[in-house]
Design a protein that fits this description.
mainly alpha, 89 residues
């Protein structure tokens, strides 16, 4: 759910960008990472409802979307705080 309690949906501009992304890849699964990046930019982070929306939109299993989102550290699964610190040791 979004902040106002409605299910997540891309804006018209984001939906047009999603269609453009799909046109650049041979399969829907190949377009998953850029679509997740678009969703994170659109909604701020990848909550479970957002991941469900992306899975339904792309006609992919939720497990695929969730596994990609949880594997890469560039995708935020929790709402980000005011500051984001990243340390490399």
């Amino acid at each position: 759910m979004t902040a106002d309690g409605t299910p997540p949906r891309f804006s018209d501009a984001a939906l047009a960008e999603y269609q453009d992304i799909l046109g650049r890849y041979p399969t829907r699964r190949a377009a998953l990472m850029p679509t997740l990046w678009l969703a994170q930019r659109e909604f701020g982070w990848l909550s479970t409802p957002v991941q469900e929306y992306v899975a339904a939109l792309m006609e992919l299993p939720l497990a695929w979307v969730g596994s990609v989102a949880s594997f890469y550290t560039m995708y935020w699964k929790q709402e980000p705080g005011r500051l984001h610190l990243q340390l490399c040791r």
